[in-house]
Amino acid sequence: MLVLSRKTNETIKIGDNIELRILEVKGDTARIGIEAPKSIDILRGELVQSISETNIEAMTVDMDLFTKLTKKE
Predict the structure, then answer these.
(1) Residue 34: which region, alpha, beta or left (left: phi > 0; alpha: psi -120 to 50)?
(2) In sequence order, what are the residues at sequence separation of 6 or more whose Cβ sits closer than 8 angstroms to the Cβ of residue 30?
(3) CB-hemisphere CA count at 13 Å for 5?
(4) pTM for the full model?
C-alpha cells in the first residue's frame, strides 16, 4: 500500500486518466474529488462490502426450506 500525505487542492494521479483531488479536510473527514473515465466504476468500499455480504447471503440455502419446497406430496 502506498501512503501519501496531501493538502487541500493537491492531487494524486493514477495512470494517465485518473486524478484524485483533496477538496477539503475537516477534522477526521476528507472530501475527495475523482476524475476518471465514465467506463471506470467508482464505489465506496463499504458499499462493495455490503453487496458482497448480500450476495453470499442470497446464495446460502436453508436446507429445511429447500427440503419442504422440493418434497413431493
Answers:
(1) beta
(2) 22, 24
(3) 0
(4) 0.65
CA dihedral 68, 69, 72, 73 (to 10 degrees): 70
Percent of all residues in the chain with a pLDDT value above 90, rounded to a whole number: 68
Q: Give the span between the Cα atoms of 41 and 30, in whole angstroms.
A: 21
- What secondary structure, in 3-state letters, does the chain show? CCCCCCCCCCEEEECCCEEEEEEEEECCEEEEEEECCCCCCCCCHHHHHHHHHHHHHHHCCCHHHHHHHHCCC
Residue 28 CA to residue 53 CA, distance in Å, equals 27
Q: How confident is the model at residue 17 (pLDDT cuts 50, 70, 90)?
A: very high
Cβ neighbourhood burial of 6 (10 Å; 0-12, 13-18, 19+):
middle
